Amino acid sequence: MTIYILVLVLYMGVLAAVGMVLSGRAKSAGDFAIGGRSVGPWVTALSFVAAYYSSVVIIGGGAFGWRYGLATLWIGAGNVLIGTTLAWIVLGRRVRRTTESLDAMTMPGYFFGRYGSPQARIFSAAVTGLFLIVYNVSVLKGMANAFEVLMDMPYWAGVVISAVVILFYTAVGGYLAVVWTSMIQAVVMIFALTLLSFAAVKKVGGMTALVDRLHAVDPGLVGTPGVWGWAGLISFTLIVSLGTWGMPQLIIRFYSIKSEKMLRLGTVIVTAGAAIALLPYLSGAAARVLVPVLDSPDQAIPALTRLVLNDWGGAIFLAGVVAAGMSTFAGVLIIISSSLVRDVWIDGLGRTLTPAAELRANRLMSLAVGGVSMLIALRPPALVLVLTAFSWAVIASTNLWPLLLGIYWRRTSPRATLASMIAGVVVALLWQAWPKLAWLPPLPSFLADVHGFVAGTVTGLIVIVAGTLLGKPAPADCVERAFGDPHDPENPRDH
Amino acid sequence: MPPFHLPWCTFGSFVVVGGSLLLAVTWAWIDKRRDKKSGKRRDEGREGSRTATRGGEARP
Question: What mean pLDDT comes out for the span A126-130?
Answer without folding.
Answer: 89
